[in-house]
Amino acid sequence: MKRFTHYLLLSMVFSPVASHAQLNTEISEILVTAEFRDTPLQLQSTSTSVLTGENIRQRAAQDLKDALQSVPNVNFASGTSRPRFFQIRGIGERGQFVEPLNASVGLLVDGIDYSGMGIPSTLFDIDQVEVLRGPQGTLHGANALAGLINVRTGEPQDEPEMRMSATYAEYDTVELGIVGTGPLVSDSLLYRLAVSSYESDGYIDNDFLQTDDVNNRDEFSARAKLRWLVDTESNLDVTLAYADIDNGYDVFSLDNSGDTLSDEPGRDTLESTTLGVAWAKALSGVEMEARVSAAASESEYSFDVDWAFVGIAPELEYSAFDRYTRDRDSYSAQLRFSSSEDLVFLGREHAWATGLYYLGDREDLLRQYDFLAQDFRSRYDTDTYASYGQLRSQLNDEFTLVTGLRGERRNTDYEDNNGVAADPGETLWGGRIALEYSSDEDALYYASISRGYSANGVNAGILSSDGISDDPEVIASLRALEDFDSESLINYELGYKASYLDGRLQMRAALFYMDRQDQQVDGSLAIVRDNGSTDFIDYIDNAAEGNNYGLELEVDYLVSEHLSLYGNIGLLDTEFDEFVNANGQDVVDIDGEPLSGRDQAQAPGYQYALGAQLEFGAGFYARLDAEGKDDFYFSNSHAVESPSYNLLHLRVGVDRDKWSLALWARNLTNEEYFVRAFGTFGNDPRNGYELEPYFQYGDPRVVGISAEYRLF
User: Fold this and answer.
1) How many Cβ atoms sit within 10 Å of the Cβ of residue 424?
2) How confident is the model over 472-482, as pLDDT tens digits?
3) What SS3 class is residue 463?
């Protein structure tokens, strides 16, 4: 716990996020900030879930995975120390090795693009997490084919506040944090500073090395914000964030016991520095917003390929280590204008927004793998230019029409030290049409059609695989997978949002159908080595057609000032209508089973979450959360499934004006479940590399205690 002493003194001076001594009598209004203008959740014609900072704290959620377990039709793929990749309505990546990544689920933190890097999104000092389901083709473009996760951290306040939190839990888990905010210059310059440290041994024992911290978590983050209130009509915001994630990665065991035998445990690290500047100014009838950001990240993802030690089976064994080191620089700029006063045209009121956007990514990869003749190096540059616009037209007192369109030019440039070079580029477009009906302020009906897209690209692992096999069938398969086309998706959605009982009961429901064309899916080729063990080449391919449809329902009910309830459910049906490769052949999984007609990976048939919080008075409370998922395929490359599972979380505590204390347990019943699996292949020399699946376990029961104190 190398950072513990740095923050020990700070841990004596802090406060609660909210006080349960002040009991609620109505459900607070929530604003969705990912739209062109802040929009009340109950008036937004999109299927959206919002987790507030208080809700995240009450769930003892430390990272995005812990929070998003409660969101309908949202799943995650592990295979790392913390999940980086998320799926919405069954769509999204599951991992990244050699391949450049075109994310299908966007991840923004304070407007900065972290898509494909979910690991730095620890949840200390978060205002809210917004999950927008369905393609955001007008709002956010190619990185939001399936939807968007928008994280908003705490903002500078005009009143001084300083608070601190500390947590101790099983597995030598210690988390410390400090937040300070207030004016630096009265009525002119505000600040916010948040610093947190999280350390844990993790939940894996390595029996060979006789240690329990091979999957440790050592995470530090700091964020500073300044808000300059230039005048009554403009302000300037500056955000500087730093994350240092230095985690172990050693999770797969040859006997699926959850205890590993690796002699070279891997790492899962990320050091990231980001800077964002936003300027907002009110003009005559127009709001202008200009944003620029820069992010520099260095990461390592490495693992013991054989999951064993030298000497486990001398006659058959192999030993290998694989390391992926990435340097990624990202730059973005956006200029947006929106109406602050409705424009009257043809007797109707219209609100509008329009803008220009640029995103540039520069990613250098170094792969050091024992079976490569030389280290593999590649560079992948992407430049995206976009223009967009949205018009909101009041047709009459009850009907509103929303139309939006986005055009995007994406240029990419790939090269590696094997002499492979490619520069695919494409012009893409997306948009949305929504008709809203509201006869009063307590109910909203909407019907929408939206189009999203995901860009084309190259399969770097395939392009650099010359000589990996002499089998003509394998060579033909490789040649057919050198690149992939863009994907388009049309989402049809019907929604209903309403408030009842003087605002104490809120409901949100959405019925959707998604039609996917040239569907992009992850796959993997299994190449058998001479000794009978297996190597893999990951790729992206296009399935001819697919469809995803289902339902999301969310209910919040403030029964009384002492009792609040919530419940949600997501129902999802997905399948490949047809899955053929570039040669027109049916694609099969590793077991030879065709994928046409099968459910898509990472798409549980149902997900649910239920919860209740009871206030006893004098600040004492208890909260119980239950959540679960149906079974689902882990991958499109094999038929291994995650069994259905149910998790239970409990928290009891007391919140006072100056301090709070809580005892909590996640996965209270110690349910055994899996978060990643590899399909049927051989990796255990003790049984002659017999074909079998391998699993990564989810977090076990963890019990902890959290305290907070407010200095002022």
Assistant:
1) 17
2) 666 666 666 77
3) helix
pLDDT (0 to 100) of residue 471:
65
Question: Which residues have C-beta within 8 Å of that of residue 676, sequence separation ≥ 6?
Answer: 77, 78, 79, 251, 634, 695, 696
The residue type found at 493 is E
Q: Are 569 and 553 in contact (CB under 8 A)?
A: yes
Give the separation between CA 141 and CA 352, rounded to whole angstroms.
18
Whole-number Å distance between alpha carbons of 601 and 635: 5
The answer for 444, left when phi > 0, alpha when psi is -120 to 50, beta otherwise, is beta
Confidence band, pLDDT 50/70/90 cuts, at residue 460? confident
Of the chain, the end-to-end C-alpha distance in Å amounts to: 29
Q: What is the mean pLDDT of the chain?
A: 87
Conformational region of residue 188, where left means phi above 0, alpha means psi within -120 to 50, and beta covers everything else: alpha
The strand ranges marked E within 455-486 are: 457-458, 483-484
- Is the pLDDT at 545 greater than 80? The verdict is no
Alpha carbon separation from 356 to 113, 139, 294, 352 (Å, rounded): 16, 11, 17, 14
The per-residue pLDDT for range 158-198, each reduced to its tens digit, is: 999 999 999 999 999 999 999 999 999 988 999 999 999 99
Q: Give the pLDDT score at 585.
A: 56
Phi (first) and psi of residue 462, to 5 degrees? -70, -45
Give the C-alpha separation, 680 to 47, whole Å: 37
